[in-house]
Specification:
mainly beta, 1 helix, elongated, transmembrane helix
């Protein structure tokens, strides 16, 4: 099994000895363009500590373009994935793995180190694991096989721990100059430089002798003890980023943390999301923010924000989703689904929704399946290029006129959302409503189903830059003897404007000739018609519109 992922950014080899990576694989970012999905994978390389979290990945140092990663799978499980092409395609190494923490690649081929409550070593590319020892904290890789770093508390003393045998044995550094029992985050093991963060007092401490001695550098510009408080070293010596927990403020320093400048804010705007991880990239000015959605109904969401100007501006990538956030459409009957030989009106509600945090653009349309299996329509739409924002929803009450000459049998009203095409439509979601008709009607060329009611046009106009089409209206409505029918043409075309009764029979032709672009008006005189419901059908080139009118005498 493989997951194919586009990789639009430049591919380049990374030095495993300088990789302390965290994050995840990818799915879809839906932009404001029709059915366009942007998919990519972001590989972050740092001179800093890895984040122990689901989805952590690491470079395979034995294969250019290779990487391993833990990624969410269906339900609440996780898979270990491998890619040999920079993440363009992913293959499952181990499905439903119990190893869901951080992962580090080792220079020895096939060796991987995982850490989440314990340190585990794999010598066979992640297929099997060997317990090496317990750990409560995150681990960063060294420069040589088996070399790893972490921090811990020993008899209430804060220590920096160093191992050269994959965590089998440890050397302890008892740093001088740090407050007791208040460290939450440390980064380092690069040219002897270490940083430690004291969230209780908001202090930043730095060592230049491999964590033996620390000096107080500054009081951070904000404090926060929640998950998400992070420091990360930049690509250039002396550059440092600070991300303040749940508040989401990002700061940058170019002078080893002595002064910081605010650059951006990622507020926690939704309780199911958390701006909980930040890391600097490999190039000057690069910084990444991770927003991770907690598992809910078997779904995990990951967003990565990327900046190449120290966090002043960001691009958003929806990097992974175990839930397929496709749009949803639903048909609900409002009255009877059984009709006599004379036909009638099928009253129904159509609802369209985007269930998740991904915007969508597509088409909505309905057609009717006849008793002989043929398709009539579309009877609604297609409403084309309808932009639906995150958690968007709309519903409309509609009426489908069942003509008297329709043959008896079972029918189906079909609703679709996707990309309309007369020959090969792309359907992302669909719903169906069955109804029956009695009588002795015949399936002939005069058969006409007319669908009218509340329109998606207003929703469409408020969210789309496409021009308004036809805009067929009747005033007054209901009416007694006459009503003014008005419409607007974007382009000159042949126009047909007809009136149909509730049985689908055409009772009047008002226009059937060439009309120029612009606004037009026609007066309907209903002298010869009886009281009741009628439908106005306007056809102009490939565009059409139907409106319901009510005659009261």
């Amino acid at each position: 099994m493989s997951i194919v992922i586009n990789f639009p950014i430049q591919k380049k080899a990374l030095d495993i000895h300088e990789i302390y990576c965290y994050i995840e694989i990818v799915s879809h970012k839906v932009l404001k363009m029709k059915r366009t999905f942007l998919s990519l994978i972001i590989c972050l390389a740092f001179a800093s500590v890895a984040i122990a979290a689901e989805g952590t990945f690491t470079k395979d140092p034995t294969c250019p373009g290779g990487l391993y990663l833990y990624g969410p799978a269906e339900g609440f499980s996780a898979n270990l994935y491998y890619s040999d092409d920079f993440g363009e395609t992913l293959q499952i190494v181990v499905a439903d793995t119990y190893m869901t923490g951080g992962i580090i690649g080792d220079p020895v081929p096939g060796y991987l180190i995982s850490h989440y409550g314990s340190i585990q070593l794999s010598r066979d590319y992640g297929v099997s694991w060997e317990w090496m020892g317990a750990t409560q904290y995150t681990i960063s890789a060294g420069r040589y096989p088996g070399e790893i770093y972490t921090f811990d508390y020993v008899s209430s003393d804060f220590v920096i721990k160093y191992s050269t045998d994959y965590g089998g044995g440890w050397l302890h550094h008892y740093p001088v100059g740090l407050p007791e029992n208040s460290m939450t985050h440390c980064v380092g093991n690069y040219e002897g430089e270490f940083y430690c963060l004291d969230v209780e007092e908001g202090g930043l401490y730095r060592s230049i002798d491999f964590a033996d001695n620390f000096s107080f550098i500054s009081t951070l510009p904000a404090s926060g003890s929640g998950q998400g408080t992070r420091i990360s070293k930049g690509a250039v010596l002396g550059e440092l980023y600070f991300h303040e927990g749940y508040a989401g403020d990002l700061f940058f320093s170019s002078d080893t943390g002595r002064t910081f400048e605010w650059t951006h804010n990622f507020p926690d705007t939704n309780s199911s999301y958390m701006a909980n991880q930040m890391q600097a990239g490999t190039q000057t000015g690069e910084v990444f923010i991770l927003k991770k959605r907690t598992y809910w109904e078997g779904g995990g969401e990951i967003f990565i924000y990327y900046s190449d100007n120290y966090g002043y501006d960001f691009s958003e990538f929806h990097s992974f989703s175990t839930t397929v956030w496709l749009p949803y459409i639903n048909l609900t009957p409002l009255d009877t689904l059984s009709f006599p030989a004379s036909g009638g009106i099928l009253e129904y509600n159509i609802e369209a929704r985007v269930l998740g945090p991904i915007a969508y653009m597509g088409d909505i349309w309905c057609d009717v399946t006849l008793p002989n299996g043929g398709i009539f329509g579309p009877v609604l739409g297609p409403v084309e290029d309808l932009y639906m924002g995150t958690y968007w929803s709309a519903n409309r009450d509609r009426e489908l006129a069942i003509p008297a000459n329709a043959p008896p049998g079972s029918y189906t009203l079909n609703a679709y959302i996707g990309e309309y095409d007369t020959m090969n439509p792309i359907i992302d979601y669909e719903d169906h409503l069955e109804f029956t008709k009695a009588g002795n009607g015949t399936d002939n060329t005069d058969l006409l189903f007319i669908d009218a009611g509340e329109s998606f046009a207003q929703e469409h106009q408020s969210t789309s830059t496409l021009p308004e089409k036809l805009n067929l209206t009747a005033y007054p409505n209901p009416f007694n003897q006459t009503t003014d029918l008005s419409y607007k043409l974007q382009d000159a075309s042949i126009v047909n404007l007809s009136i149909y009764d509730i049985s689908g029979k055409r009772v009047a032709d008002l226009v059937n000739s060439w009309r120029d672009a612009g606004n037009h008006e026609v007066i309907l005189d209903a002298t010869g018609l009886v009281s009741g419901i009628y439908f106005v059908k306007l056809q102009a080139g490939s565009d059409h519109s139907i409106s319901k009118i009510v005659l009261i005498k």
